[in-house]
Design brief:
40% of the residues lie in helices and 6% in strands. By secondary structure, the chain is mainly α. It has a two-stranded antiparallel ribbon. Helix 2 crosses helix 3. It starts with a helix and ends in an 11-residue tail after the last helix.
């Protein structure tokens, strides 16, 4: 996978340093994918997939090659997952 191809996936995650991030406290700690996965009880791969290509997306903060997550963004992702309706209907009508 070329570097350019990776950039295409992560471009929406970047925030220029000169732009203040709303709701971000200077002392707020950012989480890595492992920490987010532990909080949600899922794999790191699930987190990375929903950061780069699957919906709903988890907003991430790109720091060079690293991607970190705000707690508020993880909470928003959980809310979005909870409010989604399933497109798959159960044959048992449950």
């Amino acid at each position: 996978m070329s570097q350019l191809h990776i950039e295409e996936f992560t471009r929406p995650l970047t925030t220029p340093a000169s732009v203040p991030v709303q709701g971000m406290q200077r002392s707020e700690r950012l989480l890595n994918a492992r920490e987010v996965a532990e909080r949600l009880g899922v794999s790191e791969r699930f987190i990375r997939d929903h950061t780069t290509r699957r919906l709903p997306r988890i907003a991430g903060v790109r720091l060079g090659k690293l991607i970190r997550y705000r707690i508020a963004d993880v909470d928003l992702f959980i809310t979005e997952l909870h409010s989604q309706t399933s497109s798959h209907r159960s044959p048992y009508r449950v």
